[in-house]
From TrEMBL:
One of its GO terms (biological process) is methylation. InterPro entries: SAM-dependent_MTases_sf (IPR029063). This is Class I SAM-dependent methyltransferase. GO terms for molecular function: methyltransferase activity. Signal peptide: none annotated. Keywords: Methyltransferase, Transferase.
Length: 309
């Protein structure tokens, strides 16, 4: 049997997590990069299947979450983006979902573009008046370059994370930045209870830590600027809902989003989450500060002029 090697740091210390049938990950014990073993014939087939299941299905809303959770996430992204945005910047967001972050950019007066692969979402975004380049980001030929590229929770889904970072590098102007967020493979949830971690999800072909993202970023030409983790209120709630589903014996793929939907549509559930959010605030801030938050953010800069070089 050939020994598995980490694609990011070349370590041979690989742990195997069998989360459930057909959901198996190889996780590097050194840089924490986790790679899903293809459920279908190949990584490409896996990608096509999950895109179709989640983003081309009008009966399923993968973005539906309680407003308390969404508000907290949005506030965090806006504060971070504001630190890097400059007047007259041209901005692109890869995979903007329903466009809530794009709407904020537009309201602030930035010239913003979206890149979206889903036919359903592209139509919805265009109906909202957004400029959308339709297609798979990594395979497109872009005519323009941007000062800032935002990629929130996309890299864990793509077939080649390296191609994602290389393409982001190509579309960024010299001196410009990439701001990227993804689930954190070094989160407390994954390290304490890996088999219940929301990071291991059919649609997640990869899970990254700060270290593995930094290594991959540098491999694709970027200069590492900053990285940190954030613990959103949904981090622990997702783990509890997974535990609840296991106890009830529910099929996890079939009931994906069930409890998030419940929280999104029930006012009293939303109030409960707000209360949990308030009480858990100090604990979550400590968790994030020591790098254990369930979301990792990285800011990368493209070498060149524009930043005083
Ligand atoms: Zn590694």
């Amino acid at each position: 049997m050939t020994k598995r090697t980490c694609k990011i740091c070349s370590s041979t210390e690989i742990l195997k997590y069998c989360v459930q049938q057909n959901l198996v990950y190889d996780c590097c014990d050194s840089c924490f990069y986790c790679e899903k073993r293809p459920e279908y014939t190949s990584v490409d087939a896996d990608y096509v299947a999950s895109q179709a299941m989640y983003y081309e299905n009008p009966d399923l809303d993968p973005f539906l979450e309680p407003s308390s959770v969404l508000d907290e996430k949005m506030k965090y992204r806006i504060n971070l983006a504001a630190a890097y945005l400059k007047e007259n910047d041209r901005v692109i967001e890869i995979g903007p979902g329903r466009g809530s972050f794009l709407a904020w950019l537009r309201s602030e007066g930035y010239s913003c573009t979206a890149c979206e692969q889903s036919v359903v979402l592209t139509k919805e975004l265009r109906d909202k008046g957004f400029d959308v380049i339709e297609g798979e980001f990594e395979r497109l030929n872009f005519k323009s370059q941007y000062n800032l590229v935002f990629s929130f929770h996309i890299i864990e889904h793509v077939t080649s994370p390296l191609a994602h970072l290389e393409q982001a590098f190509k579309v960024t102007r010299p001196g410009g930045h990439l701001v990227l967020a993804t689930p954190n493979s070094a989160s407390w949830q994954q390290r304490l209870l890996p088999l219940l971690s929301a990071n291991f999800d059919t649609a997640h072909l990869h899970v990254f830590s700060k270290r593995s993202l930094k290594l991959l970023g540098e491999k694709s030409g970027w200069i590492h600027v900053h990285d940190f983790t954030f613990e959103n209120v949904s981090g622990w709630l997702r783990l509890f809902s997974k535990l609840f589903r296991r106890i009830k014996g529910e099929n996890e793929s079939m009931t994906a989003g069930k409890y998030a939907n419940l929280g999104a549509t029930s006012g009293s559930m939303n109030k409960l989450i707000l209360l949990f959010s308030f009480i858990s605030g100090p604990f979550r801030r400590i968790q994030a500060a020591v790098g254990g938050g369930s979301e990792v953010f990285i800011v990368l800069r493209k070498p060149g002029n524009g930043m005083g070089e």
